[in-house]
Every structure is written in structure tokens, then in C-alpha cells.
Design a protein that fits this description.
GO terms for molecular function: kinase activity. It comes from Acipenser oxyrinchus oxyrinchus. Keywords: ANK repeat, Kinase, Transferase. This protein is mainly alpha-helical and 186 residues long. The protein is 48% helix and 0% strand. It is globular. It starts with 22 loop residues before the first helix and ends with a helix.
């Protein structure tokens, strides 16, 4: 049975469940329980890291929505897809945006997560972040804008102009003084 993730907020999606027993169900259970040891044990056995629940949600989507950064890190180490489409067209990037965790979103972007993707209702990750609530949403939106601006600056280089190397991670955008001060205020 699907359940509301954040009952006090208007969450754009319900969290699905796995109706069968087996390795995929166990993987989803270990994510919800935050059991990193059991999660890694399952993944080492070769369980599909992108196994889906009844709503087409992967463990990475669920961990991103629940703001489980350590779980997200483990899943990404095993090759979880940050752009996997759930039944409603949303992705783990959408889920991370709603959870307002710049660290999770940064990890997803670093492995190829795409902020431009839309769910079936035409909503982007930014739209999901906007409904997350007045306390967290502005910080996440500012972080997302800095990511977009950074990506645009990389694509608008003149031909022949060398791309300036950054630290190679969107984490460097989290550490920018203006954004860091915003994060500390929260």
C-alpha cells in the first residue's frame, strides 16, 4: 500500500511498496530501514540496484525522497540510475529536489542526473522543490539555480576556449560562501 511521505506537506508523489517477497523487496526494505550493511550485502549478491516497487520507484528514488544521504551514496556506488523514470515520469532527481537535500542532489548530478527532465504532469525538479515548504525550498532553489548557471557557463564557452577545470563536483557549489551561509541558517 502506498503511503504519504511528508503528511504535513503537499508531496507530489506517494511512496510505493513491494508486494512480493524476494531480493528486490528486501532491497527496498533495507533502504527504508537505513540498513547500510544489509543493503550492501544484497547488492554484492548481484540484486538489481534499480529494482522497482509497485509505482516504478527504485531504491534510489525512495532514498532520495526520504533524504537518506548515506543510502544514496551506497546505491550510487553500485550504479543506480539517477534518471530512472518512475511510473509517473519522475526521477530520483525530482525526489532529491523535494527533500531539499543539496548534498543528495549534488551526488545525483555528479553521476549524470538531469535537472531538465519532466514528470508526466510536466513538472521539473525545480517545480518539486517549490512545493517542499517555505523553510527549505528557497535554499534548494538557490542551489539548483547555481547548478544551472554553472552548467550554462560551461556550455557557452567560445570554440577553442579551454574549459576551466573545477573540482569536478557540484559539491563545490554547495561550499560557496553565499550558499553555505544559507545552509547554516537552517
Amino acid at each position: 500500500m502506498a503511503q504519504a511521505v511528508f503528511p504535513h506537506l503537499h508531496c507530489p508523489v506517494k511512496l510505493g511498496s513491494v508486494n512480493t517477497d524476494g531480493p528486490g523487496a528486501q532491497l527496498h526494505q533495507h533502504v527504508r530501514e537505513r540498513s547500510l550493511h544489509k543493503l550492501e550485502k544484497q547488492l554484492k549478491k548481484g540484486v538489481d540496484v534499480d529494482t522497482v516497487n509497485n509505482l516504478g520507484q527504485t531504491p534510489l528514488f525512495c532514498a532520495s525522497l526520504l533524504s537518506l544521504a548515506k543510502v544514496v551514496d551506497v546505491l550510487l556506488q553500485y550504479g543506480a540510475n539517477p534518471n530512472h523514470r518512475c511510473d509517473d515520469g519522475s526521477t530520483p532527481v525530482h525526489a532529491a529536489a523535494f527533500s531539499c537535500s543539496p548534498w543528495i542532489l549534488s551526488a545525483l548530478l555528479d553521476v549524470g542526473g538531469d535537472l531538465r527532465l519532466h514528470d508526466q504532469e510536466g513538472r521539473t525538479a525545480r517545480d518539486w522543490a517549490e512545493v517542499a515548504g517555505p523553510e527549505l525550498s528557497p535554499r534548494m532553489l538557490k542551489f539548483m539555480q547555481s547548478c544551472v548557471t554553472h552548467m550554462q557557463s560551461l556550455t557557452q564557452q567560445s570554440p577553442g576556449e579551454e574549459l576551466k577545470r573545477t573540482s569536478g563536483s557540484s559539491n563545490s557549489l554547495i561550499r560557496s560562501p553565499s550558499l553555505l551561509s544559507l545552509l547554516k541558517r537552517g
